[in-house]
What does this fold into?
Amino acid sequence: MNRSNSKQKFHSHSTSINITLTINNKIVTLSAPMPCPALTVKEIIQAATQKIYSKIAYFETANQDWLTDYKIQNSAGWIRGDLSLHGILRKKDDYYYKGMEGYSVLKCIGVGGFSKVYLTRDKIDGAFYAAKFIEKTKVKDKE
It folds into this structure.
């Protein structure tokens, strides 16, 4: 089977994505065309939650799929399949964290001689970052 046939078969199978949002225990169901650019998913969510969008820090998938979370957060890539998202609301004390307490460590993405690099997510705004952890004992031993 060539590529064009597989794409046609995929499109004929499903024509839309169902997006389920949970915010403060309230559930909203939306629909988007299939396959859907992440930018469109983000726009649909913003339009549907316009009245409370400023109170939402970020959205994360119910199954904590960080790759899909990244695509939606950065409006990059294509989203396929139904989505179940949780709106993470801003808290009054969410304006400043010291150190790594302000981040969730998601996955190790690199290992070197002195350090490891992890994919992290900011607990305040949901932005993704790479964080390098250096073991002090290894650095002191090499000096």
Confidence is low (pLDDT under 50) at residues 1-13. The chain is about 25% helix and 40% strand.
